[in-house]
Amino acid sequence: MKHHLQCIECSKKFKPTQIYTCPECGDLLQISYDYTSLGRKFRESLSTPGRLSVWRYHNILPVSINNAVSIGEGGTGLSESSRLAQRLGMSEVYFKNDGQNPTGSFKDRGMTVAITRAVEIGAKKVLCASTGNTSASMAAYAAKAGLKAFVLIPKGKIAMGKLLQAVVHGAKITQVDGNFDEALERARKMASGRSGLYLVNSLNPYRIEGQKTLAFEVWEQLERKVPDVVFVPVGNAGNISAIWKGFQELRRLKLVRRAPRMIGVQASGAAPLADAYAKGLEKVIPWPNPETIASAIRIGAPASWKKALRAVRESEGAIIRASDEEITMAQRLLANQEGIFAEPASAASVAGLVKAKKSRLVKSHETVVCVITGHGLKDQKAAASFAGL
Ligand code: F0G
Asked: What pTM, to 2 d.p., does this model score?
């Protein structure tokens, strides 16, 4: 689909070449379309009967469906809570279970689009830094497309299940002495100016386009209603920005009149965004040594912080924090009472809901969706400890 890259700060538009940040001011880019001409096409694709998937929305994606590198992403379940909702005294709570994606996390939504883009621009190699899930996903899609995959991970800091996924899908793995933020910095430097090597971290705006489809699916699954509030675990802050973009596009295309409040949830030990939000700061101050059991969101310098702060401010939402204990409790509750096995980072959305209900950030009658971002089997060590094994 015809599109531009537009800087989120200076608003300058650029042709879609292989750039990751604004050549003028260095800020993040996002993909923009001509929404007037797209409206009709998008409505057409929604009125066609068919199952939910990322590619159902190809009319509002920046790559061609004819080139799609796909292994069945999206179309994940939205299950209504029975017990947690009752316990919290709420009428409608749903779990959007993105752990049901092919590699077990929401990353597949973004990766199918990013790897398709890599193929379209003729890249032969793809690269990412990761706390685990991005690397597992990238490795699988690169394998499907026949591309070489290179992964930078913080040494000893990622869950074994995710590392194994990257290994079995054939990625070349480099362990970096340092945390995720340092690994990402290195990946950005490696990719800079190299046209054959494509960086697929979420600062790549094509990733965001795939991930925004979660909003479209939720809207369809709720019979074309938007929820009042969406809870999203936040690490590098790409996903909350993506989901917000999806809801904004529904509004822009006049398919809905309002958008939900976005509530991001960070782990207390890795909460630079929650900090900035609580203090009303315009900028995020990076945390040098983030620490949490939720290794997927152990991030101190979120690349998409500006997009995320805008998402919560524009939507009148918030960014809150949950302690490791609260996250573990939520993980247990999801498994024991709702039948969903989520990894710790994924349970952060539910931990956030429990807190937000107590502090009256959400009301009993509101429709709430908690995004469950990744499957619990990926991090068996964390699960074993909460199960007392
Ligand atoms: N939940 C899970 C399971 C994740 O793996 C991540 C991020 C997030 C939530 C947070 O999403 O970064 O878009 O705010 N994982 C990345 C990775 C950083 O490398 O796998 P975000």
From this structure: 0.98
